[in-house]
Design brief:
By secondary structure, this protein is α+β, with helices and mostly antiparallel strands. 39% of the residues lie in helices and 22% in strands. It is elongated and about 110 Å long.
């Protein structure tokens, strides 16, 4: 709370002290010395004429090492303000601010402001029918905050007397400050022609898309965006930039204290060396009330994109859906379906086939719902991809509760209805509703995985029309459901399974452990969203949910009276709902976890850099090898690949020998810059592994890795030639 506490102290000091400081003062012409700054009211003219206009300014000359603040002061500070007093017929506009500079105050405050001499200009307009009997007098109650190692509120009652011009000439007599005010005017940012700004308000970031032809050839690492709205952007956090053609994507971390809806984004984009198109001007003004731009055409990297045909995408989707059943994400649901097949073992009934079709229906409907939501959100400008729902802690929490209840049911804590397996598939008399729900659950837990062939198919699908995309998602769903439909179509295959018996109760309870293993993973994933402190609430919520399930299983059984069953169901429902409420994170518990291995070695000894297209581009220009791991904490395939590859000493030694730059693009939370980079390679989800060999074409590795694949890829690169060519 250091940001809010410090600003509160500054506000109390400023607005508590200023009335006392102004008490008894009279308006004064000329400079006023306030110890930390000299204040003065100046104009660009010394005489005025009815119907004319001129510039007036609050001039502050700050002592060395002291600074005043911009309209958005950043982490600390207060912007200058002026209360004007002028004759009737005189209109004074708002203060205009020059482009600020970043001011770093230990330990880690970053403010926006000015040092030295600064002019806060306002435009004055005079009506045609104003009285000219007396000289024009403008008074100003000015206040500001001047800071060095400490902050001291400043104030002054300033006055400016201007005479009326005589004669019919069109020119006015300039003041001694005309040149300085003209230079100050030039430092006020303006919006360049043809520049457009749109933005997207994400959970923890603001992403701006700036379309302008003046970005060619500039160094992205020397850019900085100053947002005008106070408290919107975390001024101390790094900003990420990606340039594709004339479109610049700026990703900025939101302040953890910001509340409410972001309806408009206005700010100043500054480049340290100036923009060549504007003859070296360092700052431009940008403003937009347009949210959710179409980021699809603004890819961070255009090289290496993959193009496949529609027919090939359909085949890849079907094949990828079948392979998805072998991914670790789907294993818990496989255990549930195994129980269903065992129940039908030894019968000649066609019922297993209808259950298989019902399961496929659940998979299809779920895929259509996911695809429809994904297509609709992307059409609205959201930067999303496969597995997007797991970027929400609320979806993760809901899935955690469902898997936890299924595990408790399988373990025998409670029985839903009259069967032992409950929602996900009943050992005795499996219902079609439970088969359908099993298909829904299979889709929910499958989305963290991207298997072979799926990546190109899904990436291509999201570039097509809504109907064509739905067709590809339908083939993916059919591929995933096909093994179950085929098995249920042949009773002879099911009859080869062990016949039902009392051993199935033991097997059912054994199948609870894959559910609980999934819960452990979901709890860990929840920690990526809410941090370690938030996990206390997650685990506490699960405890209350378990209490509700126990109440239901203990007293809502047929042996109890109807009144007892009803009362127990009420208490169980209240307990579960209360547990879910505890478990779901509040907006204040969003974690800003930097990710494993960023800034230090991970558990495999690998040091990763955070994803930045500008840094990657610079490393490539330097002839370096860059390995980019597009990953997410909810991606089990990513975790398996990492464990297999980087547990190999040979792989780690080879990367070190080649002095590779290891980059982690963490997509656990929504990040439009990473989404665009994925799309540039024709992908819509993780994992994705890319090797950059200097400025040569990037090499995309398979979704499933092993040490041999990585070593072969590294050995095929011509690193030394790339470095020689760079030199």
């Amino acid at each position: 709370m250091k940001f809010r506490t410090l600003q509160l102290k500054l506000l109390i000091a400023a607005f508590g002290w200023l009335p006392l400081s102004l008490l008894g003062q009279t308006y004064q012409n000329g400079p006023v010395d306030t110890e930390q700054a000299i204040a003065e009211l100046v104009a660009n003219v010394s005489e005025v004429r009815p119907g004319g206009s001129f510039d007036i300014a609050l001039r502050l000359e700050l002592d060395p090492h002291w600074h005043a603040y911009w309209k958005n002061p950043g982490d600390t500070g207060l912007a200058p303000s002026v209360e004007w007093e002028a004759p009737e017929g005189v209109t004074i506009g708002e203060l205009m601010f020059a482009a600020p500079e970043r001011i770093i105050t230990p330990p880690d405050f970053v403010s926006y402001g000015y040092e030295g001499e600064v002019f806060f200009i306002a435009e004055v307009s005079i009506s045609e029918d104003i009285s000219v009997d007396q000289a024009l007098v403008i008074n100003a109650d000015a206040s500001w905050l001047a800071c060095e190692k400490m902050c001291i509120p400043g104030s002054a009652k300033l006055a400016l007397d201007l005479s009326w011009a005589t004669g019919d000439g069109s020119t006015l007599k300039l003041s001694d400050w005309a040149g300085s005010l003209l230079e100050a005017r030039d430092r006020i940012p303006t919006m360049p022609d043809s520049a457009t700004l749109a933005f997207e308000n994400l959970e923890s970031t603001i992403s701006a898309s700036i379309e302008w032809g003046g970005f060619k050839g500039i160094d992205l690492q020397k850019l900085y965006f100053y947002a005008e709205e106070e408290g919107l952007i975390n001024s101390a956090a790094d900003q990420n930039y990606a340039l594709n053609g004339n479109t610049l994507i700026v990703s900025m971390m939101k302040s953890e204290y910001h509340e409410g809806v972001v309806e408009r984004l206005t700010g100043v984009l500054q480049h340290e060396d100036g923009f060549p198109m504007l003859n070296g001007e360092r700052s431009i003004l940008l403003s937009s009330d347009k949210m959710n731009p179409d980021f699809g055409d603004a890819s961070a990297q255009s090289t290496g994109s993959t193009t496949i045909g529609f027919g090939q995408a359909l085949f890849f989707a079907f094949l990828g859906g079948m392979i998805l059943n072998l991914m670790p994400c789907v294993f818990p649901v496989l255990s549930i379906k195994a129980l269903g097949f065992l129940q039908h073992s030894g019968t000649d009934s066609r019922e297993p086939f209808f259950h298989g079709l019902t399961f496929a229906g659940g998979v299809l409907v779920s895929f259509w719902a996911l695809a429809g939501a994904l297509i609709a959100l992307r059409a609205g400008g959201e930067s999303l991809g496969w597995g997007f729902q797991l970027q929400s802690p609320y979806f993760v929490g809901a899935l955690l509760v469902v898997m936890f209840l299924l595990g408790l049911s399988l373990a025998g804590v409670f029985e839903f209805g009259t069967s032992a397996v409950g929602l996900a598939g009943k050992v005795k008399g499996e219902s079609y509703g439970s088969s359908f729900f099993s298909g829904v659950l299979a889709t929910a837990v499958a989305t963290p995985c991207t298997g072979p062939f799926m990546g190109p198919a899904l990436g291509f699908a999201l570039t097509l029309s809504a109907f064509q995309s739905l067709v590809i998602f339908t083939l993916l769903a059919i591929g995933m459901a096909m093994p179950y439909v085929l098995l249920s179509s042949f009773p002879s295959l099911i009859n080869r399974l062990p016949r039902p018996g009392s051993w199935m109760e033991t097997f059912k309870q054994l199948m609870a452990f894959p559910m609980f293993a999934t819960c452990i993973w979901l709890v860990w994933l929840m920690g990526a969203h809410v941090g370690n402190d938030g996990l206390i609430m997650t685990l506490g919520g699960l405890l209350v949910v378990a209490l509700g399930a126990w109440i239901y299983g203990r007293w809502s059984v047929p042996s109890k009276g109807a009144f007892v069953r009803r009362i127990s169901m009420v208490f169980a429902a209240i307990s579960i709902v209360f547990g879910v409420w505890i478990l779901m994170p509040s907006s204040g518990l969003v974690s800003a976890d930097a990710g494993d291995g960023l800034g230090g070695p991970d558990q495999y000894g690998v040091v990763w850099e955070s994803f930045s297209p500008a840094n990657i581009e610079q490393s490539r220009k330097d002839g370096k090898l860059v390995f980019v791991d597009f990953t997410a904490k909810w991606c089990l395939t990513c975790k398996a690949n990492k464990a297999v590859v980087f547990s190999s000493d040979e792989v780690r030694d080879r990367f070190e020998e080649l002095e590779a730059v290891m980059v982690k693009a963490d997509w656990t939370k929504r990040d439009p810059v990473i989404t665009q980079a994925l799309e540039s390679f024709g992908r819509s989800g993780v994992p994705l592994y890319v090797l950059y060999d200097g400025m040569n074409e990037p090499k995309v590795l398979p979704e499933l890795l092993n040490p041999g694949i990585v070593l072969d890829a590294l050995n095929s690169l011509d690193i030394e030639n790339a470095r020689v060519a760079q030199r």
